[in-house]
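thread from #wetlab-drylab

HS: before we spend reagent money on co-crystallization trials with pyridoxal-5'-phosphate, can we at least see a predicted complex? here's what I'd submit
DV: go for it
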Amino acid sequence: MFQPKTTIEPFRVKVVEPLPVRTRVQRAKALADANLNLFSVPAKEVTIDLMTDSGTSAMSQEQWAAIFRGDESYAGASSYFRFRDVVRQLTGMHHVIPVHQGRAAERILFSVVGGEGKTIPANTHFDTTRANVEASGAVAVDLVIEEGRSPSAEHPFKGNLDVVALKKLLEQHAASVPMVVVTITNNSGGGQPVSLENMRQVREACDLFDIPLFLDCARFAENSWFIRERESGQEKRSPKDIAEEMFRLADGAWMSAKKDAFGNIGGFLALKDDALAEQCRNILILTEGFPTYGGLAGRDLEALAVGLEEVLAEDYLEYRIRSTHYVWCKLDEAGVPLLRPAGGHAVYLDAREFLPHVPPSQLPGQTISAALFLEGGVRACEIGTVMFGSTQDDGTQSPGPMDLVRLAIPRRVYTQSHMDYVIEVVRYVFDHRKKLGGLLIQNEPPALRHFTCGFEPIGWDPFAALD
Ligand SMILES: *Cc1c(COP(=O)(O)O)cnc(C)c1O
C-alpha cells in the first residue's frame, strides 16, 4: 500500500489574506520607532508573524457557519448552552463559566483562592498566571522536573511536575496551598507535554493533602497527542479519550480558548465545586458580564464550541505536531541551538547558545528577535530575561531561568513554503550571529514589562547590515 512520507496540510484554502511584503529599510524604521520591542511594531510591517499562536488561528468553514447561528441574547442564549455542553463533555465539570480570555479566568480564580500568605505550586506558571497569582498577594512556585529547566536535556515529558518536590512543599505548607496547577502543555517551559502518569501522581499527592488540582489547559489537545505518541500504552487511544481522562483527574480547569479551540478570542473556567463556582460567577458579573456570555459574543461561543471538537481530529493533530517538528528538524540540522525536543506549538531557539558572546543580563533573546524581524520580516517572541528576569537595585538584570526565542506557529495559517522561508531567515541570522550584541532595557513599567519597555544597544549598531 502507498505510504506517503509527506504530511500534507489537512485543509485547502478558501479565503486568502495578503501577506505584507516590506523592504529592510521599511522594517528598520518600524523597529527603530518601536525601540526594538516587537510588541510595538505594527502588524502591517510583519511578513510572517510567529509572535504567538494565541488568537491567530484560521477558523474552519464549520466555525464560520456556526458564527451565523450566534444567539446574542443577554441571558440564557442558546449559544451558551451549546458551548457549555461541549465543555462539560470534554472536562466532566459541571460549572462552565465563559470568559473573554485565559487571564480573565486567572484573575477571577486567584482573586477568590489567592491572597497574602497563599502559595500556588505549578509545573510552570505561564506569565499571565504568575502575574495574576502575584497580583492577589500569593506566591507562585514553579516545580517543573530538572530536565524541564535545561534547554538541551532530552525527555519525552519535559513539562512534568516534580512530584517529590511537590510532596515536600505540601508536607510543610499544605494549609497555605489552595490548589496545585498543571499547565498543559507547559508553555513557558517550551511547549513541552506532561504525561498522564505524571498527572496521576500529582493527583495522588493532592489527595494526600486534600488539595484541589487545576489544569491550565490552553493546549490540551496537543498534550493529548504527545501522550499518544510518547507514553507507553497510550498509542491506540484517541486524542479525545486521552483528553477526557486528563480532565477527569482534575477538580477545575481554565483555558485560553485562543489556543487549542481555534478561537480568535475567548476562554473558560470549568469547576466542580458549587461554592467556588458561585464566588467566581459573582466576580464575573461585576467585571466580565452575565454568566451565560462572560464578555464574549454569542457568535464567539459558537465558534469555540465547534473549535473544541475540531481540534481533537487525528489528522489535524498529526499535521500540527509534524509540521512544527519539520521546522525544528531543519534548524537542528543547520546547527541552530534549540530547546529539545520539539514542542507542540512552537520552535524555541536557545538564545544563550545562539549568542554565547552576549551574557543573559544583556538580553540575547531580544537581540535575536530584533534581527529576525529586521532581516526577514519574521516576528518571534523573546521568552527569557526580558519576560521573566528583573532589574536589580543597581540597574543590572537578574536573568530569567532560560533565554529562549519562541517561533510560535499559528494554527492552520501558514504553509510549508512559509516555514521554509522562516528556516532560511533563522539560518541567515545564525550564520552572522557574531555581528550581534547586547541590549539594555529602557522605560520599564511595574508589571509585564516585556509588552511595553524599550531597548538600547550596548556599543553596537543593531541596524547595520549583517554581511
Ligand atoms: C495564553 C495562555 C494563558 C493566558 O491566556 P490569554 O487568553 O492570553 O489571556 C494562560 N496560560 C497559558 C498556558 C497560556 O498559554
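DV: The CA atoms of residues 197 and 310 lie 26 Å apart.
HS: ok that's useful, forwarding to the group
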